[in-house]
Design brief:
Keywords: Hydrolase, Metal-binding, Zinc. The chain is an alpha/beta fold. It is 26% helix and 27% strand. The protein has one domain (8-276): Ribonuclease Z/Hydroxyacylglutathione hydrolase-like (Metallo-beta-lactamase, Chain A, 4-Layer Sandwich), CATH 3.60.15. It has a seven-stranded mixed beta sheet with strand order 1-2-4-5-6-7-8. The protein has a six-stranded mixed beta sheet with strand order 9-10-11-13-14-15. A two-stranded antiparallel ribbon has the order 3-12. The chain is globular, with a radius of gyration of 18 Å. The protein binds zinc ion (2 copies).
Length: 280
Amino acid sequence: MNSPHFTSHQIGDFLVTALSDGNMSANLDLLSGIETADAGVIQHRCGITEPGNIHINCYLIRGRGRTLLVDTGTGGVNQVGGLLKGNLGAAGVTPDDVDTVLLTHGHPDHIGGLLDAEGRPIYKHAELYLHPLEAEYWRDDEKLKMASERVQGNFTRVRQTLDAYTQSLRFIDGNEIIEGILPVWLPGHTPGHTGFRIDSGDKSLLIWGDIVHFPHIQSAHPAVSIVFDCDPAQAEATRKKCLSQAVREKLLIAGMHLAPTGFAHILMAESGYRISYPEE
Ligand SMILES: [Zn+2]
Ligand SMILES: [Zn+2]
């Protein structure tokens, strides 16, 4: 079922397709817990030619008569990314076809695609799912006051977006979103950071959001965090848990900042773990 442009995996009734939103620059010096030079060596060794450039994925889930989108990319704000809409169309889906948008968290490279240039909802017929702690965090005036100017812009964006989607906003709890799609709370990167898991027979997929930004570096060194992590210690604990679970349960991993093919397995390595991208 793989189209020439997109990578898809069938998990039970659901066809999950990685859709690129493009790239964004994220310098290696945003990482802590590793020397920039050492991080560069890992990138180089893994064949990454632009070490300070990370990819943005979104995922389309189709099945059981439903069309779900997981995250929406940047929306092209500040000339970054914005390719999702075109790729969605190329996959045969219009924004009006999307009945559910699942958000991993509120960062601009995940929610930016929800509003058009006039601040109106693009996914007009979709229910929008978000973890309640995520909404609480971005609506917290004390947190806003303490944030840097750049991060304050993120608060404004989340608030505008949630306001525009008030009617269709649903909060994630421990229950399945729809039968077969289970939310998994993965806190640390942000307080309400959430993954989504689909299990069928011997196949299991975890869409893990922003567990890693630099897949090769942070799988080899799970203690390495990035400046965007709200709570680096919690993010590290969650990342370690996810990586060991991915190995133990042989999970297929989908992640918003994996390579453009969008899916990977996690293997044990001499030190830490190793990302393995399946041949398509
Ligand atoms: Zn993020
Ligand atoms: Zn991100």
